[in-house]
Design brief:
Mean pLDDT: 82
Oligomer: single chain
Shape: globular
Low-confidence stretches: 116-124
Number of strands: 5
Strand content: 5-15%
Bound molecules: nicotinamide-adenine-dinucleotide
Strand order of the largest sheet: 3-2-1-4-5
Order of helices and strands: EHEHEHEHHE
Helix content: 25-40%
Distance between the termini: 14 Å
Radius of gyration: 15 Å
């Protein structure tokens, strides 16, 4: 399984990439480096799992860039955001663009990317430990969902 992690050079995204690599997955971080840093992913770029990790510099509001990065990925973790809560009051337009519009672009680009839309068969993962735990990850209403909304498996 290969994961695309937006915001992968950020605080949570880089930790998620580390966890995915440790679980035997492949991971691609996608980040525009406005806040994220290559220092956060340095252990991944130079450690034992480096052949299963790469980083793509790009912006979530550019669907073509996401589509290109997602082409060979099976699952998306969307963690790119501007988590600065005060911005919501001071600059709502920028907040909308960086959080709401960026999320729309990411989901739509992932949905329409040319990559396979068939989830991999468990036997094809070569005995990797499942991460996250396997379950029905079909997107559903957030108010009724028990799955974390930031992850979306390909259908
Ligand atoms: N850190 C926490 O304690 C915490 C707690 C709960 C929820 N969250 C949420 O988790 C998410 C990630 O938080 P974090 O603490 O890792 O933040 P962070 O700022 O460390 O990471 C966000 C990353 O996204 C990147 N980014 C921002 N806009 C982008 C864009 N348009 N295109 C590509 N990359 C972009 C930034 O460069 C950065 O690397 C946020 O939605 C945040 O609200 C964080």
């Amino acid at each position: 399984m290969k994961a695309l992690v937006t915001g992968g050079a950020g605080f949570i995204g880089s930790s998620l990439c580390e966890a995915l690599i440790a679980a035997g997955w492949e991971a691609r971080a996608f980040d525009n480096f406005t806040v994220g840093s290559r220092k956060n992913i340095s252990p991944l770029l130079h450690g034992t799992g480096k052949s299963r990790f790469d980083i793509v510099s790009g912006d979530c509001t550019r669907p073509a860039q996401i589509r290109k990065a997602a082409r060979d990925c099976d699952i998306l973790f969307h963690l790119a955001a501007n988590p600065e809560v005060r911005m919501e009051l001071n600059n709502p337009k920028q907040c909308y663009r960086q959080n709401v519009y960026a999320t729309y672009c990411v989901l739509e680009a992932f949905r329409t990317s040319k990559a396979s839309t068939t989830p991999p068969h468990p036997r094809s993962t070569g005995g990797q430990r499942p991460f996250p735990p396997q379950r029905n990850m079909r997107p559903s209403s957030l108010s009724h969902s028990t799955a974390h909304p930031s992850s979306l498996a390909r259908r």
